[in-house]
Design a protein that fits this description.
Layout (H helix, E strand, L loop, with lengths): L1 E6 L7 E4 H10 L2 H4 L10 E3 L1 H12 L12 H14 L3 E3 L1
Antiparallel strand pairs: 1-2, 1-4, 3-4
């Protein structure tokens, strides 16, 4: 299964990642706290612009594990940072 990320801004991209990719990021960074400790499920998450900016900072300070995002963990990290910085808030489903 996957988690879909929908930005509030129409000028930002949508994307999806496997559940395990998102859950690993939630468990190993401060994002889970920033988003008010959502359960590790596919339940929707609604994030404000302020929370999204904090998520971007959290990912910048986070070190991905090897193979976290397939063969290019840094590419995945940069994608999340760009999304969080540009999305103006987001929701998942």
């Amino acid at each position: 299964m996957t988690i879909e990320f929908n930005p509030s801004s129409k000028l930002c991209f949508c994307f999806s990642v496997p559940n395990a990719t998102w859950f690993h990021l939630l468990k190993t960074s401060t994002i889970k706290e920033i988003l008010n400790n959502p359960p590790l499920t596919n339940d929707p998450i609604y994030a404000t612009k302020k929370q999204a900016i904090k998520c971007a900072e959290a990912v910048k300070n986070w070190q991905p594990t090897e193979f976290w995002f397939g063969s290019d963990s840094e590419k995945g990290k940069q994608m999340f940072i760009e999304f969080f910085e540009r999305c103006n808030g987001f929701e998942t489903y």
